[in-house]
Amino acid sequence: MPDYDNVLVERRGEVGIITLNRPEKLNAINLALAHDLRDSLAELNGDDGVGAVVLTGTGRAFSAGGDVGRIEAMKDEAPEQPSLPNLYWLEQCRASKPMIAAVNGLCLGAAFGRTLCCDVRLASTAAVFSTRFAKLGLGPEMGFTHLLPNLIGLQAAADFMFSGRMIDAPEALRLGIVLKVVEPDELLDAAVRLGGEYAANPRGAVRRCKDLLYVNAMEREPTLVLRREGEAQQALAGTPEMLEAMAALKEKRPADFVAARGRAAAGG
Predict the structure, then answer these.
(1) How far apart, in whole angstroms, are the C-alpha atoms of residue 53 and residue 115?
(2) pLDDT for 70
(3) Is 187 contained in some domain?
(4) Dihedral through CA 15, CA 6, CA 125, CA 141, nearest 10?
(5) Which of 48, 104, 151, 240 has the fewest Cβ atoms nearer than 10 Å?
(6) What average pLDDT does range 4-28 have in this prediction?
(7) Which positions ≥6 away from 81 have C-beta within 8 Å?
(8) Alpha-carbon distances of 74 from 68, 71, 136, 138, 249, rounded to whole Å
(9) Do 68 and 147 lie in a common domain?
(10) Segment 34-82, tens digit of pLDDT
(11) Ramachandran region of residue 120, left (φ > 0), alpha (ψ -120 to 50) or beta?
C-alpha cells in the first residue's frame, strides 16, 4: 500500500482501516488530508480482498473538523469551490463498500459530517460530537441539513444545529447518531469485527443492499421500491455467491464465498 502524509492505512483480514493522522492538529481536515482520505478510500475500494472499511482517528480526537487555515481561506474562493471535496466524499462513500466510522474522541463540524456519510457509526465512551457551525458564524456543510434530520429527526437536528452544543457518546446513542458505544480500548476491535461480519457476506448482495437503502429510503412511492428490489433479486439470481449460499444451506455447512469468487474469477 502507498504511504500517505496524513492518514494511516492497514488491513485486518477483509477489513481496511483508514486512520486520520494529524494528532498535533487534532486531525483537523485540510485539503491535503481530504485528498489523502479520497485516495486511500479509493485504494481500499479497489482491493478485492477488502469487503468493508473502518474510518477512525489517531490520538484523543477523531477530528476537530475543518482546519482553521482552510476555513479562513474560504472567503477568497469561488462559491462552489469549498463544497467540492465534500461532494466528492459523499459520492465516494455512497459508492464504497460498507463504511464504519469508529469515533474515538472529539468529532466536530465537517468531521462529524464525514461520519454521517458513512453507513454506520460506533463511538467510544470518550467521544464528543458537535456541529459547531452556528457557534463559528458558519453555515453547515457536508450534507448536514439532509443527513442529520433524516437520521435523528428534524426537531432534534434543529436543536443540535442551532445550539452548536456538545453531546457525549451516550446522548449520541440515544439520538440514534451512533449504533453502539464501547470503551476506548475496545473501539477499533469492535469496528473491525462489525466490518468483518459485513465483509463475510456475498459482496454483490451487500452492494445491492447499500444501493437500495440509499435510493429507497427517501422514496415515497412503494411500487418503485418493490420494482427496484425485484430488479436486484433478478440480477443476483444465479451469481456464484448466491449458488454457493444455496448449496451450503442444502448441505448444512458454512458457505465459502471467497472460494466461490475465486472459482468465478478462474472461469470455473
Answers:
(1) 12
(2) 58
(3) yes
(4) -100
(5) 48
(6) 97
(7) none
(8) 10, 5, 14, 11, 56
(9) yes
(10) 999 999 999 999 999 999 999 999 999 999 998 776 555 555 555 555 4
(11) beta
pLDDT digits (tens, 9 = 90+) for 223-241: 999 999 999 999 999 898 9
CATH number at residue 115: 3.90.226.10
Neighbours of 259 (CB within 10 A): 12
pLDDT in tens, 189-204: 999 999 999 999 999 9
Joined grid coordinates for residue 33:
488530508
Judge residue 115's burial from the number of C-beta atoms within 10 Å of its C-beta, 0-12 exposed, 13-18 middle, 19 or more buried: buried
Four-residue CA torsion sign, 253, 11, 210, 193: positive
- Three-state DSSP class for residue 186: helix
- Region 28-35: mean pLDDT is 93
How many CB atoms within 10 Å of residue 175? 17
Residue 251 belongs to some domain of the structure: yes
Q: What is the pLDDT of residue 76?
A: 52
Q: Which residues are 11's β-sheet partners?
A: 16
Separation of alpha carbons 266 and 60, rounded Å: 46
- Assess whether 172 and 221 both reside in one domain: no
Quick one: average pLDDT of 116-134?
A: 96
For cell 462552489, what's the residue?
Answer: 80
The verdict on 30 and 91 lying in the same domain is yes
